[in-house]
Amino acid sequence: MKKLLSLVLVLVLVCTLFAGCHGKKLVVSQDDTTSDGPNTNYQIPENFDTSRDYEISFWTKNDTNMTQVEIYKKAIADFEALYPNIKVNLRLYTDYGKIYNDVITNIATDTTPNVCITYPDHIATYLTGKDTVVPLDELMAHPMYGLGGSELLFDGPNQNEIIPQFLNECAFGGYYYAVPYMRSTECCYINKTFVEKLGYDLSEDDCAKVYEEFVRIIAKRGKISAQELIEAQKNGTLEECWGTGTAAVISPVGKLRYVDEVMNINGGNIGQLSQKLYDTITGIQTGVLEDPRGWRVTV
Predict the structure, then answer these.
(1) Residue 210, Ramachandran bin (φ over 0: left; ψ between -120 and 50: alpha; else beta)
(2) pTM for this one?
(3) Is residue 40 part of a domain?
(4) Do 127 and 220 belong to one domain?
(5) What is the residue range of 13's domain?
(6) What would the pLDDT profile of 96-141 be if each residue is shown by its tens digit?
């Protein structure tokens, strides 16, 4: 029965969190296939046994983002209130790489989590393990316990309400091994004041025009050399530095090194603009702030 619950949680847990599913008792092997699909002894029971107690391990990222952590905790509390015989054990990580390494390590000892958030390419690696990941196709389509199932104790989405392109990223060999309930947003940030001081006109009313103009400005300006960065740090004009990425959102950089030159930036502290950008984009992602440009998509 633990096999079922580890998968049910992927589909049940408030439908906002998950992009991956694994479990020490979830049985599938990429190499063991038949003409009908992956060879698995996983069976969906006719009914969910509420007289038994179960525990599910859930590994996820963002222990440094307290807003995200509180969302996880509330989602789990809501889930456990609906299913009081299920206990969800939350384990938080600082980055996806550590989750990936722990899953890979634990495959050999048969101690992988039941559910975790992960990247699609990581799932492909997990599938090299024997009896590690179960395909979700049958469960997703199940009329009682699947997406939008009649026996679920919440109003969840059906498969037609999930953006197909996102769902396709979770498929390997023609079978789904995850659900895209958590998506990152990749954005391009422009310092309008700075750019306009350079003599360029950026219209706030036309995002496409802003982007095209910005690309043109970058092409004209060219790359910033390491020497320019060194000089900017020495004369005090290098006020902040940050990196962006799918999982990083906005990550401030406190120190840069080039050959023997070390550039300390803003005393190693998060700058005002970096913090504002981070708070704004995560606020929009989590629904704390308004979404004036319609970036959020319901899945």
Answers:
(1) alpha
(2) 0.55
(3) yes
(4) no
(5) 2-176
(6) 889 999 998 988 888 889 998 888 888 888 887 776 888 899 889 9
